[in-house]
């Protein structure tokens, strides 16, 4: 979710106003994903690098994240959304952690769609945390360091049951992934869109899915896939 | 004939103009290039033998490195063969590996300034090939020009796993306590144990040809904050103009690193 600050700047509004308008986009995109039958969607809300922003913006974002999760929790629950948090606990404001955990708890039994909220998330940080957890098992004799493989390391990610990302959408015209799910999206199709997040909605998601359906995914093989039906991504970010 | 002469003259003029525009603009230090589309280029050019595509692609790599040197780039990583590519049938892989070997020999030939290294899981290749690749690259040891990493049998997930294992092993070899790894494992542990000996743990710019828009595991750790540039043409058709346009695109990017 990118471009809130620039969206506000273009309109002569404070950056925080962009974040506020971005809130509606989240619910609309979730609805659109459910309508398409997508089972997993990850949203990049706050990165481990975002602490570098001004103290005022950081504290706005902390309060805002806490409030959004709180106010939208019941609506998401009613939609059958299962909320899961991905990120680091240290540094994150206590109120945010509490709301995330409460939303996880409330929606535990839902299975319409999994929503992975990436809050204080960084892809490199996730790999470091996964390795640390793995090192703990090595230390305690539950795992032999020689047996470490990509499959084993995957089991130590924040959400080990989350499938690899099929489609990664980056709005706001930037062409980079900014440390978002590098491990899980190693073979993801990347779709860059010129739209800023507050202007994004389910149609943006659908356009990206259309583009995804036209891509030729080979996983290192040379032969093209042959499919009759347009493929729908299982996991979107 | 006349048309092609005019065309190439115009291209040279345009090239010079592009280079001039790039003067003083930010340029990437470390560029990753995914040289994709050799086989498709060969088919499109009417060659029955895909080897023609590999050969043309190999020759283009030498051109590219010249362009990068001139542009003042410090480090280029070329994605020539992934670990997943090795699942292709041997009759397809064999000729490709031959061309890769020949390319590595060419770019580390005596008299060239580049420091060439082959990175990836060479143990997945036939033993003789792995040895020949390493020997070819070793001829460039000690050279202080641009660093060139040739990724062969490379996979980004595998590289991270290998870095983790190597960080664990070096910690234990120094008589370290495994408990310390739990306490203090950090990004540096992975960054310092990547395949490349250059120590650069960040890629600034990734160029991929042939219209695909995905990373396919390329420099998975290093590309966390990389700018990406996708070009529709197949690798053998990539021109200096396309390269300079890519650099122009990079120069226009606003890199914020989370700020």
SSE blueprint:
The complex is a heterodimer of chains A (237) and B (259).
Chain A lengths: L3 H7 L4 H22 L3 E8 L7 H24 L2 E6 L7 H13 L6 E9 L1 H17 L10 H5 L12 E4 L18 E4 L9 H13 L20 E2 L1
Parallel strand pairs in A: 1-3, 1-6, 2-3, 4-5
Chain B lengths: L1 H21 L7 E5 L3 H7 L6 H21 L3 E8 L7 H18 L7 E5 L7 H12 L8 E8 L1 H18 L4 H7 L2 H5 L13 E4 L18 E4 L9 H12 L8
Helix pairs in contact in B: 1-9, 2-3, 3-4, 4-5
In spatial order, strands of the major sheet of chain A run 2-3-1-6
Oligomeric composition of the shown chains: heterodimer
Largest sheet of chain B: 6 strands, parallel
Determine the N-to-C terminus distance of chain B: 53 Å
Distance between the termini of chain A: 10 Å
Task: Report the strand count of chain A.
Answer: 6
Descriptive report:
The complex is a heterodimer of chains A (237) and B (259). Chain A is an alpha/beta fold. In chain A, 43% of the residues lie in helices and 14% in strands. In chain A, the strands form two sheets. In chain A, strands 2-3-1-6 form a four-stranded parallel β-sheet, with helices on both faces. A two-stranded parallel ribbon of chain A has the order 4-5. The N and C termini of chain A lie close together (10 Å). The model of chain A is unreliable at 223-228 (pLDDT under 50). Chain B has 259 residues and is of the alpha/beta class. Chain B has a domain at 29-75 and 84-154 and 195-251: 3-Layer(aba) Sandwich (Undecaprenyl pyrophosphate synthetase). Chain B is built from nine helices and six strands; from the N terminus they run H-E-H-H-E-H-E-H-E-H-H-H-E-E-H. Chain B has helices at residues 2-22, 38-44, 51-71, 90-107, 127-138, 156-173, 178-184, 187-191, 240-251; strands spanning 30-34, 75-82, 115-119, 147-154, 205-208, 227-230. A six-stranded parallel β-sheet of chain B has the order 3-4-2-1-5-6, with helices on both faces. In chain B, helix 1 (2-22) runs parallel beside helix 9, helix 2 crosses helix 3 (51-71) and helix 3 (51-71) runs parallel beside helix 4. The interface between A and B is large, with 48 and 49 residues.
